[in-house]
């Protein structure tokens, strides 16, 4: 009887968490469902990649991976953590030049054409629906606190994974944001967290539209999506093209290497700056996260001039050493004759400048 009571309690708790815990996200509107069902990228109840992208591992390989994760890597985190550069709120408000500031992982503050944009602003302590249990951020402080940020013209998301779309961040940030721009199927999460549906745009791959003088395009990526149980691949993942009259930017989101990079380069390149996923990789899931050498090649495929490697420097979500992504990317860029910037977290990079950060600050 005691075992039955315990089992029943676990089932009830699981039901309550899955249905009422807000961090897991929200439901799609009827209009979103209608648009998903007619999307060319949706098949048999799931969004699909352009090319086959298997992610399942055999039981033996899974058990081996679990053992490696339990054992851990002593170099997976920087000893003593990271101290981010402080970003002056007055500088953020008043500087009008095209520039970008990296917050670690894939979170970026972009100034372009006089507008202030945030890309994948995950500012939480841990990329987990239960932050107390998840991997912790390397730095104890952000370059600037959410409360100090100016009004944000738009927040752009690449997909709905916890290390990109964070419940706590949205709750704190939403009052400052004029527009949210997200892949198809993601809006329901924001609505559940209190964002007005009227300021959310959802887009499918190859949607091109204007936003306050900019041309934006939702472009393909090779990845997957999902929060909680049962939601895998029911929302879209994407990369983004951001164009003004003077500046062309590509934001890769999360992606394995694939032919979509050359497609994007042919249609929208060349780019003055690319923000390229480089981190949390492993040979076992190379289809959804590029190895650093592939990251540099993808930058060349989209016809990028200067690359900033992202998706590293904040959390340990894979087995590699924490600085391995940037070290390998720098080496590959040198071999291929490609320009790469390596700003510190919180260091602002002027887009189009002749000089850009290239110190080995992680050493």
From TrEMBL:
InterPro entries: Metallo-B-lactamas, NAPE-PLD, RibonucZ/Hydroxyglut_hydro. This is Metallo-beta-lactamase domain-containing protein. GO terms for molecular function: N-acylphosphatidylethanolamine-specific phospholipase D activity; zinc ion binding. One of its GO terms (cellular component) is cytoplasm. Residues 117-312 form the Metallo-beta-lactamase domain. The lineage of its organism: Bacteria, Bacillati, Bacillota, Bacilli, Bacillales. It catalyses: 3',5'-cyclic UMP + H2O = UMP + H(+); 3',5'-cyclic CMP + H2O = CMP + H(+). Signal peptide: none annotated. Counteracts the endogenous Pycsar antiviral defense system. Phosphodiesterase that enables metal-dependent hydrolysis of host cyclic nucleotide Pycsar defense signals such as cCMP and cUMP.
